[in-house]
Amino acid sequence: MNYKDFLEISGQFSLGGLITEQSHPHTVGLSELAKSDLKSGIQRMKDLDMHVFDVLMNKLDQLEEMNKMVLDTWSNGNRVFICGCGSTGRLALTLETLYRQITKQTNVISFMAGGDVAIIASVEDFEDHPEFGAQQLNELGFKEGDLLISSTEGGETPWVIGAVQEASKIGKPFFLYCNPDEVLTVQRSQDVFNNPDIYKINLTVGHQAITGSTRMQCSTVLTYAIGLAILCQENFTDYATNSIKNVRQYYESIDAFEFISKFIELEADCYLKKEYVFYRSKPNIAINILTDTTERCPTFSLHPFESILDNPINPSWSYFVMDVDQEVYKNSLDAWEQLLYGRQPRALSSNYWHKYQHKVGLEKLLSHDISQDQIERRIKYAEGNHYQFKIIYDQNNLEMSWEFLSPNLERIHFSKIKAINDVLGQNIVLKCLINIHSTLLMGRIGRYQSNIMIYVRPTNNKLIDRAIRYVLYLLKQNNILNENITYALVCENLFEEIKTLVYGESIVLKTFERVKKLFLL
């Protein structure tokens, strides 16, 4: 695709009017707070998380209907499918894993755009293909009587819409989203709204802490909503009300500054000194931690977790491995099965995906080794110090601990708080805390300005539009924007910069500088 091709379809992806794409006034200046006032930065992000609980309480009637549909599906011997793309795909996999952990059942099937390998790094351009969503659904054996629960933070993701429209041909799937109906004017969203065979649940939580970073509050509300629906066996309103109330009180009671601020400083300092961090946790929260570390790549333009097939290997700043007390995970497949709580990873292997096999096949997935072997291997090829960050949820003693270790495995910092006897609720709170942690540490090293995602990677049409809008924003902020600087002109220059863009560079800043030179000569 060149810039002219994009401009022809740009109207379908001009998403600046969406609430999820706009700046939140409460987090303006967040990048500066990350450096000079962590306490305020943490509290402002936590304030936004608290709104999630209010939104859920106001949607209990619709969530109860979804819960009834889930229970009816199972009572008839059928399965519940959960799908999403990018962040919502990772939450789908997280929910199946938590469901397997809590119930020991296998009648929930999750899938995301690009298959399970996309939990490491989203497969470029998959999001833009509705037919891919339909194909993945059918390949998993979705049949009449099964139920699909789909989620898309923005409410306009083509891949998700393709899957839910396909499911509506033989059933009545759910479509969950986080923008007001009136701003979702693109035709694909309207087609969903006008389909009487699709149940719609609007979970708008407002602007995100970082513009467009729907991995935070949007993903949290969707995870919690679907989690409640698939885990409640009876008396949904009482069950959900008690859960939301207890989790909210627990999260409010945590002194987040006291608990996580030192870890933010330590990890940020590692990256500023070009050092590395291994994240480690046990299966009960592993997928939650993995998700946060991998989602930093598209948000902050970081190298994704490297593959052992890469040549040359460009190591990511952080890497996740399973934490074990003994040598039980002997290879990559073992570790992946433990991550997914006993199931084999789902790769895309049919002939339909032939030209994508190097991106979505099982060999590619397993080349992202999250077993113990990767520690020794990575220390050899990634020159520099390697720290370890262990996050543990002890369900027996109801404690959650974070521990930062030196390259010699000596404790640098340790923090522990009480946990709750609620696996879903504890994972929701952990998600909020680790999202705050990663966002603020990236602010300390300059990976966003104020609360604007200037390091967005333009890997699909939505993100290309976002990058163009942010360039225009910076031009306006710097009093450079004039009638001659149009969306089309910025688009043309952005596509020129994409040709030489490498990981770690900001396409927004590069394009901004390029356009600035054109008009300030």
UniProtKB/TrEMBL annotation:
InterPro entries: MURQ/GCKR (IPR040190), SIS_dom (IPR001347)
Transmembrane stretches, start-end: none
GO molecular function: carbohydrate binding; enzyme binding; enzyme inhibitor activity; fructose-6-phosphate binding
GO cellular component term, pick one: nucleoplasm
Record domain SIS: where: 70-241
Domain of life: Eukaryota
Any one GO BP annotation for this protein: carbohydrate derivative metabolic process
Name of protein: SIS domain-containing protein
Species for this entry: Paramecium sonneborni
